[in-house]
């Protein structure tokens, strides 16, 4: 599988997905 | 009026814009430009005159950003980093920023010194350094996306998180 960080779009999409995951954790687990 | 948080926030923003601005410059402009420049043998201009200057402001801006952020957190510093109740949003932002700072000083800068010839390295070491620096830089672009989300909204917009 290609590393998503090798492309700019892959990097941006990975960042957005990570944002959603962390938002869920902050809102529902840490709060 | 307490002047320290006002000045810390101002400096945090100024240095942060320089740090992340140069991070985006490297990833969105310089990396593709070097690829094109390598094809017509003009990359030396970038690696000799542009990259060292950009890296200088990039790495020092990262440190100033972190220190000003720490000053801005003040007596909430420990609460943020331990993700205490009500501080988890900004705490996640602070952790992401800290990981990014460690990436700059621990991976990007030492490997860029090899790539740019500031430190002795064999061709094989340079090839490896290029890959490590590239992936560390791309990781920071990825982390900057949630980092800015939590920095912008983690503390001041507590309602967003129901904190």
Overall, the morphology of chain A is elongated
Number of helices in the DSSP assignment of chain A: 1
Overall mean confidence score, pLDDT of chain B: 92
Low-confidence stretches of chain A: none
State the largest interface. A-B, 18 and 22 residues
Structural class of chain A: mainly alpha
Structural class of chain B: mainly alpha
Classify the helix fraction of chain A into a percent range.
over 70%
- What is the percentage of strand-forming residues of chain B? under 5%
Distance between the termini of chain B: 26 Å
User: How many whole angstroms does the radius of gyration of chain B measure?
Assistant: 18 Å
Oligomer: heterodimer
- DSSP strand (E) fraction of chain A? under 5%
User: Measured on Cα atoms, how large is the radius of gyration of chain A?
Assistant: 12 Å
- How many individual β-strands of chain B? 0
Major β-sheet profile of chain B? none
Task: Characterise the protein shown here.
The complex is a heterodimer of chains A (31) and B (163). Chain A is 74% helix and 0% strand. Chain A has one helix and no strands. Chain A has one helix at residues 8-30. The mean pLDDT of chain A is 93. Chain B has one domain (3-161). Chain B is built from six helices and no strands. In chain B, α4 packs antiparallel against α5 (123-153). Chain A binds chain B through residues 3, 5-6, 8, 11-12, 14-16, 18-19, 22-23, 25-27, 30-31, and chain B through 27-28, 83, 85, 88-89, 92, 135, 138-139, 141-146, 149-150, 154, 161-163.
Defining traits:
heterodimer; A: about 30 residues; mainly alpha; about 0% strand; B: mainly alpha
